[in-house]
Amino acid sequence: MRRNTKWLIGLGVIVVLFAGIFTVSRLNSSKSANGVKTETVGVAPGPYGDMAKNVIGPLLKKKGYEVKIKEFNDYIQPNKALNSGEIDANLFQHTVYLQTFSQQNHLKLTALDKVPTLGMGIYSKTVKSLKTLKNGATVSLANDPSNLARSLQLLAANKLITLKSGINVATASLADVAKNPKNLKFKTLDAAQLPQSRSNVDLALIPGNFSWNANIKPTSALAMEDLKPDYLNVFVVKSSNKNSDFAKAVKSVLTSQAFKDAIAKSEFKDFQKPASWR
């Protein structure tokens, strides 16, 4: 009986030791071997994962943070994962989307600052200039309401169509086209199909994420969207962490000359810059 008691006590000691080791391991799980704290940033398909990893990441490392990228396949999960604490920040959305999504889903998320953003472009494999666009040309547009409205605004900005006066341009649809002087024929598609559609249409209006994923250079665009400030992408954290050391480090990096210089030397140099950079 005494032998069994000693065995049980010994087993208990081992269990306690392992529990302690596991607890210490968990407490230190966010730190790498060199003491740098790891922060997970959620992204969606597009250029911003590379921006976070290759430009923002190295600058944050100098401040004691290692950036780990977690890619999601849609524009819904990155915000929900951030709100639940699964990730520490995200970089994939503009302010308008953040505010709308947060309100609809009762999330408390805060944008720290804007980053250079690739806007929508008008691309073509055959047309060399919008001035030479033929009458009756076919134009492919995204079929989702947000990108469709942006597409129509871009066409209007380049005087290819005129939208009805008094409408909310942020929700414009094809029914809001007042004048179409070139008798353009519109073909609405899923945004992911727009790059491929260039082979079958005269013009394709492609959102930045999708043109980037298709390796279409923004410099090849016949015209680019002039993004309003609220449509530039933002680095987002949970509102309860907006004054954390990590958030302060991010703000410091995004407003630094080092970040501007790094962008200027990167593949993101042609992205539209925040107004504060000018």
Could you give a quick summary of the protein structure above?
The termini are far apart.
Plain-language structure description:
The protein is built from nine helices and twelve strands. It has helices spanning 2-27, 48-61, 77-84, 95-105, 145-157, 194-197, 208-213, 245-254, 257-264, and strands spanning 37-43, 65-71, 89-94, 109-114, 121-123, 138-142, 162-163, 177-179, 185-189, 203-206, 223-224, 233-238. A five-stranded mixed β-sheet has the order 2-1-3-12-4, with helices on both faces. The longest helix has 26 residues, at 2-27. It is elongated.
What structural keywords apply?
five-stranded mixed beta sheet, about 280 residues, disordered N terminus, alpha/beta, elongated, single chain
Order of helices and strands: HEHEHEHEEEHEEEHEHEEHH
Calculate the mean pLDDT score and round it: 90
Please summarize the sheet with the most strands. Answer: 5 strands, mixed
Please provide the count of β strands.
12
- N-C termini distance: 82 Å
What class, by secondary structure content? Answer: alpha/beta
Which strand-content bin applies to the residues? 15-25%
Helix content: 25-40%
Can you tell me the overall shape? Answer: elongated
Low-confidence stretches: 1-29
**What Rg, in angstroms, do the CA atoms define?**
25 Å
How would you describe the oligomerization state of the chains in this entry?
single chain
Strand order of the biggest β-sheet:
2-1-3-12-4
Helix count equals 9
